[in-house]
Design goal:
The complex is a heterodimer.
Chain A (H helix, E strand, L loop, with lengths): L1 E6 L6 H5 E2 L4 E5 L2 E6 L3 E4 H4 L3 H4 L7 E2 L1 E5 L3 E5 L4
Chain B lengths: L7 E7 L3 H11 L6 E5 L10 E7 L5 E7 L13 E6 L3 H13 L6 E4 L3 E7 L5 E7 L5 H20 L5 H18 L12
Parallel strand pairs in B: 1-4, 5-8
Antiparallel strand pairs in B: 1-5, 2-3, 3-4, 6-7, 7-8
The chains are: A alpha+beta, B alpha+beta.
């Protein structure tokens, strides 16, 4: 299982709309957007359309799993052990 | 036009003792934490991963700290540095300051849109980073609650492992945020809805 928690404010919420995963579930509550999936969650920066400072702090709400990739093009969180 | 300034927005320092710093300013002095951000690969070498947290010192002014993950303490460590940011209200004011510096041959190092502010940066004759910044939006209770959780996650992760990484911090933050969501579950989602 993987999860990404996005602070539900204007600069970060586009991350939720850009996240891609099989069986992706989205919960919007308590000031956060929770994205969960059984497998990897991928976000392409081109889809999130964020400036540098926002993109590189976009995981500020935390994540569950293993951060496989975080560079200037993509964020990818995979299940622990993968 | 007249160049306007509205006092200090934030004064930022580097800390190598984040737990003690949080306990002093948050718990002893009793300051609110209106904002905190964490970033990966954005702090420049040799300390790309950081937490940047702010304390409200009144009148809209903030005392801020950077904690850089994985930078060892010791005599060979880089000396902490700091910067001062002054506040302006509008983009027009910010751009007027940019023109002012350029007219006087002061190089504007960067103009950056951050999460909630936009800033220009120069160096003063002492080498200190001098920032002029304007708000992009108001900070809210949501930002403050998120900052409280970030500081809690930072203390937890560094207490568990003094060599904790930004990834360790983010995983702990997720656990704390998950509790926030669970605590605010709606009746339907918890199965408590009346039939």
């Amino acid at each position: 299982m993987t999860a990404i928690y996005v602070l539900d404010v204007p600069e970060f919420s586009p991350l939720a709309g850009a996240a891609v995963a099989d069986e992706l579930e989205l919960t919007r509550r308590a000031g956060y957007i929770r994205l969960t999936a059984p497998g990897p969650i991928t976000v392409r920066r081109a889809d999130a359309a964020m400036v540098d400072a926002v993109w590189f702090s976009a995981l500020g709400g935390g994540y569950t799993g293993r951060l496989e990739r975080f560079d200037d093009e993509q964020i990818r969180v995979v299940p622990d052990g993968e | 036009m007249t160049l306007r300034l509205r006092g200090v927005d934030h004064a930022a320092y580097v800390t190598t003792k984040p737990i003690e710093t949080i306990r002093f300013y948050r718990d002893v002095v009793g300051l609110r934490t209106p904002h905190a951000i964490t970033a990966k690969g954005w702090g420049g070498k040799p300390h790309p991963d950081f937490v940047h947290f702010f304390f409200d010192i009144g009148s809209g002014d903030r005392l801020a700290f950077f904690y850089y993950f994985g930078v060892p303490e010791g005599p060979d460590a880089e000396r902490p540095n700091y910067h001062l940011a002054l506040h302006v209200e509008t983009e027009e004011d910010l751009l007027a300051w940019r023109r002012r510096f350029e007219e006087h041959g002061v190089r504007v190092i960067a103009q950056i849109i951050h999460e909630t502010i936009e800033s220009i940066y120069v160096r003063d004759p002492n080498g200190m980073i001098f920032e002029i910044t304007r708000p992009l939006r108001d900070l809210t209770e949501r930002d403050q609650r998120d900052a409280e959780l970030s500081l809690e996650a930072l203390v937890d992760s560094l207490t568990a492992d003094t060599g904790a990484t930004l990834e360790d911090f983010w995983r702990r933050k997720a656990e704390l945020v998950a509790k926030e969501l669970d605590n605010e579950a709606t009746p339907e989602e918890t199965g408590q809805e009346d039939d």
